[in-house]
Amino acid sequence: MVSLNNILLIFSLLACFSCAKVGYLWDQGFGQMDLLSSARPNKEVLEDSKTPIDAQQKIRQIEKYKEYFYQYWSMKPTGIYSETTLLEGDAVTYLVIASPFNKIEAKRHCFPFMGCFPYLGFFSQQKAKSFARELEQDKYETYVRPVYAYSTLGYFEDKILSSFFHYDDYGLAELIFHELFHTLFFIKDEVDFNEALATYFAREMALEYFAWNDEQIKLKEAKERRQALISRAFAQKIKSLNNEFIKRSFKTQIDAKKFRESYWKQTLKPEIEKICAENPGKGCFPLKKNWNNASLAAFMTYENNGADIKTLHKDLGVDLKNFFLHLKKSYSDYKKNRKKKSFSDIFLGIVEN
Question: What is the pLDDT of residues 38-49, one digit of tens each?
Answer without folding.
Answer: 899 999 999 999
